[in-house]
Specification:
The protein is α+β, with helices and mostly antiparallel strands and about 160 residues long. Helices cover about 20% and strands about 30% of the residues. The chain has helices at about 1-10, 140-155; strands at about 20-25, 30, 45-50, 55-60, 65, 80, 95, 105-110, 115-125. It has a 6-stranded mixed beta sheet, covered by helices on one side. Strands 2-7-6 form a 3-stranded antiparallel beta sheet, with no helix packed on it.
């Protein structure tokens, strides 16, 4: 409910959060940044909500404790936060084992500060390590030809 009220408030008052861009690799992990005031009064006062593409529940922090209770299934066991940093305003989220469907815009709603931070996650394919450095096409033909000539000259 709070998230909807905050969004309406921001629309009415023309507040548009800056979108930070983060790049990740499918199968790897990425940290989505979110920071609040560095002097949080107490853990009990901390309420932060992470959402993907405005409506998917990624993770909640209620009264300073992480909650996966209402979390969408696609994020189960793939999300981590940094509880030791909550009082310092660090509400960043680490998303593990990235999937194609993870691309998009993530919103971090900080309740007491009435702020929204947006992060756009762009994904790229994991580099093909098997073919790294392998030559194809004309380069391979030239290298093979030079190798054959070198062998014939020294035999």
């Amino acid at each position: 409910m709070f998230v909807r009220i905050l969004m309406v408030y921001m629309c009415i008052h023309g507040v548009s959060p800056k979108v930070e861009e983060v790049e990740g690799v499918i199968g790897a992990s990425v940290v989505l940044p979110c920071s609040g005031r560095e002097d949080q009064p107490s853990l009990e006062s901390i309420e932060v909500y992470w959402r993907h593409n405005s409506n998917l529940n990624v993770y909640d922090i209620n009264k300073g404790k992480g909650s996966a209770e209402k979390q969408q299934l696609e994020y189960k066991n793939r999300v981590e936060t940094f509880p030791e940093g909550y009082l310092k305003g660090n509400f960043s989220l680490q998303l593990n084992n990235l999937r194609d469907t993870d691309a998009g815009t993530y919103s971090c709603y900080i309740n007491k500060e009435q702020s929204i931070q947006k992060v756009k996650l762009q994904l790229k394919e994991k580099p093909d390590m098997l073919n790294k450095g392998a030559q194809t096409g004309p380069e391979k033909i030239v290298t093979t030809s030079l190798l054959a000539i070198s062998i014939l000259l020294f035999v």
